[in-house]
């Protein structure tokens, strides 16, 4: 049966879409009599050749029906085995893909956590700088107001500042 599977898998790989209907045994593998056909040969021999062998063997309708039923069972068994193998292969591929995706998900989750932490730190730094900026602007405004007030006091006292800001009496 393993030889049968290997042959079917090789031929199936060549014509995936055509399925079992186009599988055939080479002329060298076909015996002269129906009794000498192995299960592999019976399942894979071209139907016309099988009919020729059954006619040559002189089988009646019941015997022909029995051979056809046996051939059908063998082909169904083979087809089921192929389906099972394909399903196993597909499951294996999906498991591999799933493992890869889970690994990628873990990596992206770690990166996401890192980026969130970095974003949080940057937001705190931004808040601190914004607060410092507002405090500096407020202090600047207070100093300007004090300079304006002092300049006005100097002007009322009659003292005029020179270009460098030093005050001289007029």
Contiguous low-pLDDT stretches (5 residues minimum) are: 14-25
Which strand order does the major sheet show? 1-2
Q: Total helix count?
A: 4
Distance, first to last CA: 122 Å
The succession of helices and strands, N to C, reads HHHHEE
* Number of DSSP E strands: 2
Estimated structural class: mainly alpha
The helix fraction, in percent, is over 70%
Proportion of strand residues: under 5%
Rg over alpha carbons: 47 Å
* Averaged pLDDT: 82
Large-scale geometry: rod-shaped
For the largest beta-sheet, the strand count, sense and barrel status come to: 2 strands, antiparallel
Task: Give a verbal description of the structure.
- With 170 residues, the protein is mainly alpha-helical.
- It has a domain at 2-89.
- It contains four helices and two strands; from the N terminus they run H-H-H-H-E-E.
- A two-stranded antiparallel sheet has the order 1-2.
- The longest helix has 97 residues, at 61-157.
- The radius of gyration is 47 Å and the shape is rod-shaped.
């Amino acid at each position: 049966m393993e030889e049968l599977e290997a042959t079917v898998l090789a031929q199936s790989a060549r014509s995936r879409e055509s399925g079992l209907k186009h599988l055939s045994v080479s002329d060298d593998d076909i015996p002269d009599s129906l009794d000498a056909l192995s299960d592999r040969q019976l399942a894979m021999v071209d139907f016309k050749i099988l009919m020729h062998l059954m006619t040559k063997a002189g089988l009646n309708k019941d015997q022909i029906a029995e051979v056809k039923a046996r051939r059908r069972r063998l082909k169904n068994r083979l087809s089921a085995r192929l389906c099972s193998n394909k399903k196993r292969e597909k499951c294996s591929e999906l498991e591999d893909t799933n493992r890869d995706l889970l690994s990628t998900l873990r990596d992206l989750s770690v990166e996401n956590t890192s980026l969130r932490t970095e974003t949080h730190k940057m937001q705190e730094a931004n808040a601190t700088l914004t607060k410092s900026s507002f405090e500096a602007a407020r202090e600047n405004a207070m100093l300007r107001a004090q300079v304006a007030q002092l300049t006005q006091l100097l002007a009322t006292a009659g003292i005029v500042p020179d270009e460098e800001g030093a005050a001289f009496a007029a």
